[in-house]
Amino acid sequence: MREGPSRHGAPAGPAADLTVVRPVRTPFLLLRRARAQAGLLTCVTALAVAGATLVGLCSLLLTAAQDQALEAAVRGTAPASVAVTAAVTMADDATQPDVVAAALAQVSATATAAFRPFPTSTSVWATSTPRYLAPMPDGDLRATYLLEGDDLTEHAVLTAGTWPAHGTALTQVALLDSTARLLGVAPGSTVVLAGAPQHLGEAPADPLTVQVVGTFTPRRGDRTWDRDPLGAAGYAPRGASLPTYGPLVVAPGTLVGHSPVARFHVVVTPDLHGATVTGISAARGGLDGLRTALEQGLGARAQALALTDDYPDVLRRMRQQLGVTDSEVLVAALLAAALGATALGLAGRLLADRRAGETVLLRARGAAGSQLAARATVEALGLAAVAGGAAVPLSVTAYRSLAAVPRLADAGLSAATGVTATLVMAAVSAAVALCGVLVVASLRATRPPGRRSRVGMVARSGVDVILVGLAVVGYLQLRAHGVANGSAVDPVLVAAPVLCLVGGAVVALRLLPWVARLAELHASRSRRLVLPLAGWEVARRHHSTAGAFLLVLATAGGTFGLTFATTWERSQGAQADAQVGMQLQVDPGAVAAGDEGPALAAATGGVPMAVAQRPVALGTHLGLDATGAAPQLVATDVRRGFGAAPPPPGTTWDDVTAGLATARPAGPLLPGDAPAALEITGTTADGTPVLVTPSLVVRDRWGGQAVRPGAQVPLDGRPHRVDVPLGGAGGLPAADQVQVTALDLALALGPGAAPPGGFDQTTTLTVSVVLRGPAAPAGTSATWFGASPPNGWQITRGAEVSEHDGADGAAVTATASVSLTGLLYTSGSLLLVAGEPAEEVPAVVSRALADELGVGPGGRLSLMVDEAALDARVVGVVPYVPSAVGTRAVLVDRTTLDRALLALHDLEPLTDRWWVDGVPDPAAAAAAVRAAGLGQPTARDGLIAQLRDGPLRIAFVAAMWTLVAAACVLALSGTAAHVASMIGARNLEVARLLGLGMSRRAVRATFLAQHAAVCVVAVGAGALLGTGVSRALGPLLVVSSTGGRPVPEALVVWPWTSLAVLVGLLVVGSTVVAVPVARAAVRRASATHLRMDVQP
């Protein structure tokens, strides 16, 4: 008769012999034991399932989530930013209409095919071969050209007349305002384009008469006008070989296929709304061979081909961010796996302790170690099969639960994710690896008793020293080289946090015996019973602290996850603040310069500030970086500060910019809602009739600058009234007050002027301009100075200017020498500027630019702002310049820069963008700006949300949440298993204490006090470890949206409330899980344990 297993799970009779003699029955014995120990195996299986599910979830975050993130990011990309532009310059013998039409069709088809499977739209701009205007009086030829663009009207603002129409008797054209002024034409005028041969031996082209029907101005900041040969400048002194005016814009369908074309641009823009991973990769492959295909297709017909293709670069940057995100998700996955393995190791210890009697009996009956290992392996594989099978659907369910969180769903995380091959492989592999821990624990339990080893395999093998050394190396590598900027997983980013946390946990485990000694010392001096006994147990029972490693690692991992996530999110906000400068940033739209400030103030309810931001050359040093980008000049009203932009460490923006504002605003103040009334009186010394056209250079309170022209009047010694509109045209609000910063007096010879007799005949001109009704001038100085255009004519020289404020207003009087000979050939200008001249422009430069040029405070720079050369003096170096982060930049004061440019007769408005602060509702303000057509707004809050919750980085957020949740769940589960194992090993001790007369309550209190002490010490050590790792690695692991170092540098942010909740949960939870186990152990302890003197 075979005896059944005892209640402790060990065979009590001949059944044990069957295990050895007939090993074929091992599966049946395993099933019988599983039924007898169902609760224990359920606990172990649950831990294995939890660990495998976490790994499976992380695999989905690395695969499905990243694919969805890439799709969402591509779909959200502005199509214009990834458009392909092919600029083709035709060969001299290939400009015929039919040849050009065939070449254009081929280029369009080839570029469209490269973007498959995306639908596309095509835009074509074409430029004619040179045409010639009527010669100037001196016989010099002037060139021009026709320009046709099917979407040109979307990139320009019509200022007068209408756009050209196709099919009219006379070819209709529209001109830039500046070109129309230079040619002296207006809507309704006709222009004859003189015939001239294009090539030697070619018949002259037929003269073409065109009718001007409109004038326009390009939208500021619109790079589309780079397709124009003159870049929308309207005039080039020499052009290709002659002075060139243009373009003469014609209606679509007028030029291509009907007239010779010298150059055309084909722009193919994809529609990315339905982008999929497969389509994204297909388009990338199609664009790789686009240049070769175009060159082969065009052949000898093309003289030059310029191809602009930003899609690969945009995709590369996206994959770089995904690579960084993958690395951070792997950190969470490895830490979760380490926690799962540790928790399962504790469960394996519990399992081995419960089966200790069975193992001893089997060895006594002759079972070999290989047989015991085989049985443990079969059982572990069975558990792995169950855990892996359960982890796959649970991983999908957990992923879908994450995708249902609004923040993650808004970023593109989709719940429509099923089982994938990668998920199955990851979950099953994790289950097998985790259950392998059970085999190791079982083999350790089957070793014959011998000398007690030190705590833990890590301590015995010396791996702790290796781990600490690798952690130090990882930290040094990360600090020296930063995060790898690539699409592949960065091994340093993955390994450094894991090694530091695991190595630190091992070191913390080494320190626990020192704490235990203190507990033993306290116990030896105390006369009480419960606490001293608990302290003695902590010091003498090595199994009492065996579960401390799990608590240390879990607390450290959770602390690191919370702190790193908070630091990363705060860094995204700081980066957004640095990029925007203030609450709202607006790139100008179709509103004319000078009208934007009042319009923005009315639309947003905030306070706008005009900002100049444009590329700048540093003397002969172009300073192009590896991407071809030039240094950026940023000019703001430094007195207003930089809003939320984080200042450099240890200082403030006020301190940094204290030496920049050397020029104070100066000039009379006029009401901005009514035309300015000017009274102009002037004469020449020799009586030569001269005409003057006044223009006011005005600036509103927000820094917006504009040139307001007036009517032409003669300088005949009599006063002439001129009314100059100051803004508010087209229904836009006008500024309540503007400041006149300069007076530009355009000079020309009047009717009846006799030709000068000498080579350079000059006369003295005196002119007085009275500005009626101005308020007191701003600032303390009423000084004015004269400026002349920096050209070879030198029409005006030696200007002396003064201002006198009277009852009628501010009178500005100027005297200058005027070249009458020069006025015979060209117009002249006398510019009167309010304020003191700016001899130099103080500047603050970014650290990157300072290091490149080797300059510091006191150094000199030559700033080339457009065509003006300015002398700049460096007064400071900063880590970055607001609104120009990630580039080499120069920061100057807007007023000082304006003054310096006016001295060089540069009247072009400097406003490239607007910053708006004091906005009550930034999102509503941004919508109002778009609705009013005032430009393209970027809200600080919106940019923060984009950087923090964008699709390319959202998997990181999900991974950190998963890591913290895994740390809590696995720590409490593993601690419960450890407590059960420890109580089972101390049943005999509990019975002895009860036999000595100790009460059950005192025994429970002793055990709980001992366990609570270990938990508090372990959780505290883990919190300190997590804090140290977060402080050391957190700022190094944060990256920008481009994959590089963040600007400004990340600072550690401590989420104290969340950390307190985490630590409290782990301390209380790990203590509470021991209460029911301790009660059950004390309740089950009896004299039977004393008589048997064995551990169950």
What does this entry look like structurally?
- The protein has 1096 residues and is of the alpha+beta class.
- 45% of the residues lie in helices and 21% in strands.
- The chain is built from 31 helices and 37 strands.
- The strands form six sheets. Strands 1, 2, 5, 6, 7, 8, 9, 12, 13 and 14 form a ten-stranded mixed sheet that branches. Strands 17-33-34-32-35-18-16-36-15-37 form a ten-stranded mixed sheet. Strands 19, 21, 22, 23, 25, 27, 28 and 31 form an eight-stranded antiparallel sheet that branches.
- β10 and β11 (244-245) form a beta hairpin.
- It is elongated and about 135 Å long.
Topology summary:
Blueprint lengths: L14 H7 L4 H11 L1 H25 L1 H12 L8 E7 L6 H18 L5 E9 L2 E3 L8 E3 L1 E4 L6 E6 L9 E6 H7 L6 E4 L14 E11 L16 E2 L7 E2 L2 E3 L10 E10 L6 H12 L1 H9 L3 E8 L1 H44 L1 H9 L4 H35 L2 H5 L10 H25 L10 H6 L1 H19 L9 H35 L4 H11 L7 H33 L3 E5 L7 H9 L2 E9 L1 E2 L13 E5 L16 H4 L10 E5 L4 E9 L5 E11 L4 E5 L3 E2 L5 E5 L12 E13 L12 E11 L2 E4 L5 E4 L8 E11 L2 E11 H6 L2 E7 L6 E6 H7 L6 E6 L2 E11 L10 E5 H10 L9 E5 L4 H10 L3 E5 H10 L4 H32 L1 H9 L4 H38 L18 H17 L1 H11 L2 H6 L4
Parallel strand pairs: 5-12, 7-9, 18-35, 32-34
Antiparallel strand pairs: 1-13, 1-14, 2-5, 2-13, 3-4, 6-9, 7-12, 8-9, 10-11, 15-36, 15-37, 16-18, 16-36, 17-33, 19-25, 19-27, 20-24, 20-26, 21-22, 21-23, 21-25, 25-31, 26-30, 28-31, 29-30, 32-35, 33-34
